[in-house]
Structures are given as C-alpha cells and as structure tokens.
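DM from R.C. (forwarded with permission)

"hey, sorry to bug you on a friday — could you get me a structure for this? deadline for the figure draft is monday and I only need the backbone to look sensible"
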Amino acid sequence: MSKDPNLLKADTHPFLLKKSAKTWDVIRTHEDNIWFIYMGTVKGDIEVSPYWNPPASYDPRIRPWYIAAFYAPGEIVWSAPYVEAITGKVVVSASILIKNEEKNVGVLAIDTSSTTLSNIISSMDFGEGSYTMLIDKFGNVIAHTYLDYAGGNISNEPWFTTVYKINEGISLHKLNDRDFFIAHMLIPETGWKLISFVPKESLHSEVAPIRNNTIFVSFASILGAVLLSLVITNFLVRKANSLLYVMSRVENGDFAARWDSRPITKELTSFQDKFNRMIITIENLFNSRQQIENRLLYMSMHDSLTNTFNRNYLEQEMNKLSNDTSNSVGIIVLDIDGLKFINDTFGHSIGDKLLISAAEIIKISIPENTVLSRFGGDEFVILVYDATKNMMENIINRIQDASKSFKLLNKIELSISMGYSIRNGRYKTVEEVFKEADNKMYNDKLHHTQSKQSNIVQTLMVALEARDFITEGHADRMQDLVVKLAEQINYTDNRHNDLRLFSKFHDLGKVGISDIILFKPGSLTFEEMNEMKRHSEIGYKIARSSSQLNHIADWILKHHERWNGDGYPIGLQGVEIPMPCRILAIADAYDAMTNDRPYRKAMSHEEAISELRKDSGIRFEPYLVEKFIELFEDERK
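My reply, with the result:
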C-alpha cells in the first residue's frame, strides 16, 4: 500500500486514511494476532483501526514504532516492546515507511500484543522454578512466562553477553544465590532469542533415578559399571548429537524437525516432549511474524479500494522492463471519464463504486499476460507482455464492450478514455512508451469529454422525467402554475421557456438522493432531512455541466430559499432570492399540498390556500401569495 492513492496523499489529505481504515477493519477480523493497524503522517496526523480518537497532545512521530521505520526506509522494522497509548499494554510493532516518490508521507504499522506472545511462552514448562523469556538483540523482553516482566530490559544482567555470543547452547550461571542452567536458541530472521532458565536442583531431581540406578549397578560389578558407563556415554553422545542436529535444522527455518531419542528413559521422554513443544512454540512465533509481514507486503503492492496492483508495483515492473529489451511490451493508459463530476454530484462513496466496477470490468477484459495497476485517482495502467498491435486493439475493444453493459445507479453508463503504445526492440524506453500511451489517452478524452458529460446530464434528465418525482404529472402542473403566476405579475420578459425548463428540472438533484429517503412513508429524521437538502446543490452542479441547463443553474441552487431567510442552502432573504425561485416556491407548495404524497393524503384547494396565507411573509413573498390566490379567483369569475 506504500503507493496507494489514499496513503500517498495522507500527509496533505489525512481524511483519506479513513477509507483505508475500513480495509484494515476487515483484516483485523481475520487475523487474531493483530491488535491494531494504523498510520501516522509526517504532519502528526494518525488513523487507527479500531477507531481511536487521540488526545490533543498525542504525536505519532515520537512513538517507537514510527521512529524505528522512519530511519530504515524500504524495510519492515520490528520495534522493541513498548507501552502503546490506547490500552496501556505492552506491544511489539511491525512498521514500514510510506513514501510518495522521494517524499516521506508517514509510517504504516501493525501491533501484536506482548501478552499474546507471553501466553505462548507460558505454555513451556521445564520443571518447578523454571521460566522462559523471548528477547531481542538489545535485551528488551518481548515476552515472558511472568507477564509483569514483559517490556523490561535485561541487557545489564551478567549472563546476557555470554548468551548472545553464540546462537544456541547451555551454560550454568548463579542468579540470586541459586544455580541455573540457561538454555538458549536464536529464532531465524528476527534476531530474537528464546531463553529458558532451569534451577540446577530441579534438574538434579529429574535425573536422580538415573544416578541411583548407576550406583546400584556399580556395587554389583566394577566391570559392569565401566561397561555401563561406556554404553551410557555413547548413548548420551548419540542423543546429544541428534539433539544438536535437530537444533541446527530449526535454526535454518525447518520447523517440521522433531527430536526422536528412542530408545529412551522416562526422564528423557519428558525432556524430548518439552523440547519438541519448544520447536512448535518457535514455529508459532515465526508464523505469526511471517503473517504480519506478508500482510504488510501485500498492502504495500495493492490498491486497497480496487484490489488491483498499485503504482509502486507498476513502477517496479517498469524498471525491470527497462533492463530487458528482448521482448515487446505494450502499455495501455485508461482514465475513468466523469469521475470528478460523479464525486462532486453524488459524493465520493458513489465515485468509489464507479472505480471498483471499472476495475472489475477491466480485469475480466484482459488476458493473463498482463498487469493491471491503479496509477492514480481515476487512472489505471495495463502492462501487456509480448504485445502486438492486434492484441492491444482487441483488449481496448473488449473493455469498451464490457463497459457498455454497466450503469451506475441504474442510469449512468461507464465511459473510459484509453490510449496505448508498444515498444518493439530497444528503439523506445519504457518511459517513452508510457508517455506516448498517456498522450493518446488524453487526446481520446479531449475529443469526447464534453459530449460524454452532456450524455451523463441528459441521462439524468431522462431519469427525472421518467420518475416525475413523487406524483405523476407534477412537472407539467408546475410549468402551468409558474407561467400563469409570472404572467399575473407581468414577469414574462420573454422567459416562458426558461421558466418551463426551471419548473421541469428544479428537482434534478433528487436523482442523487436515495429512493429510501425520497419515497419514505412518514416524516424524515434529522439526518435524512439534511441528506434531502443536498438535492439543490447536486442539481446546481449537474446543471452547470449542461449546455441546456447552465443558464438556470443558479435558480436550481436557490429554489428552496425562504422569504424570511430561513431557507437553504445559502439563507437568502427577501428580494435577494431570484424572482423565478420566489414564484416556483409558491407553485411547488400548492401542488404538493393538493396532491397525494407517500406520507399523507391531498388537501382541498381551500385548505392549501389557507396554508399559503399562514406562510405568507415567512416562506413566501406576501405580494406573490396574493397574486397566486387571484389566479383562482379570476378563473372562477
């Protein structure tokens, strides 16, 4: 994820991390060993999964996990145990520096609990008074049989230097006036050591039966004792060599190795079982670490939204191709048309759905000898190996055909601008091929961007007409009422067509509002009402993008303003509100009251007129209310 668009812009747009955090939440539900996934930026912002609201004084840049990765770019770094800020418990972090080209963006990290590791360690039992710990090369205690010792440091202990000189071994040391055997083994690739402390007296009690049997035999025969001693010595040497062989296999990462000391005594059976359990423990620790590193590696190469490769992976592949001129390679650059318009109109969540759908359509349209990467916000890049002109054109045709079957919100067709280029031999660099494909894509985009955007708006207009929001005939009735009231006050100014267009499409923005809210039977909640209010701004943005509607876009934006200034979205008051909006407000309210709605039955004409008078001077201009009422009085006359 080190080149993922969300993470790469996190230093300047920290809110983008919230999108990645949703993916992190899913990862945590499937990985029991992962406590937290989080990223801190170079500006001190942080996003955490699960959600955490840090105190004002919290600065991720001074935390151990951040510092460790920041000074080791390109590496996955394991921190020393430390007390994390959320739960106050001791954890170990795996972290990696996120860079956008040459600029440092922040550090992505994963926490695993020191307590979890200690629970694994606690399962190892070498007799009464024994204990085990897991330490790093600096003497920091990562896990301990006794949880209270996790997070401490033992580098000043007299035995530490001796133990760390060799990878594994057993030595005798005096600790707190007691003799202890210290057995230690290096865990491959981590630099960590697993160390067990066994009291000498405990070990003596384990081997006492062997010692007593030896004494008994010596009384029977000195010769027998000598022979038995030779047999035992040979036996123990063979077992020791067998043990050392298994230890060397484990050190080299072969966790399937097990020590089989048959034929064995009861005492050696116990030691063998404990040793083999220790191997299983080391394997569990190694696998846990490996899973975390694999997850980080996957995240560093994939886009979290579309699950395609990301820009980081693409650039690595392009670097490889720069050094290999033996085979032809093609590059297709793709740009999702109208994504900014969709984001601005319907919101980024709908824009994300468009990107995900586009990625899926591209995936099913490309052959196996290709690499698909999300290059930026709305751009994808396809690397095609052993490319030919015919192959490239077939890929583009398949993508175009597949995209025609997709409709966003069941209305808007997916449109993708594309350009390609091929390198044959060493006459072009990969960078030149990419630039040529990119230029062709932009030429394609310039030729039809305006028409495609107009098509989107036209599609939305057709959708609005087809649904004729809330009640059949609403748009036609509105046009008649608005034009009649405009004529009643002599506000024509050759604007009949504009007023009719405004009446027809003033609610255009409702195509961006959920049907659940639009057709809800009953009152809207506070949150639903706020969502509904967005339709005037959505309609404004759509109208601005249409040559047919841009001249009435300002009216669409302001058609819910109120005479007393309590309207939305701006809060205009009195004559600040455009006259067409003041006219439409009265006509719209009357038509809504005198026709059935999902949440209520229609009012009578008299009841509706009474309501208009109540809101005169509040929602509506008083002069226009009286002129509107005169319309019906004149008709009756």
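R.C.: lifesaver. The chain has four domains: 5-113, 116-289, 311-462, 468-636.
me: no worries. Residues 210-237 have pLDDT under 50 and may be disordered.
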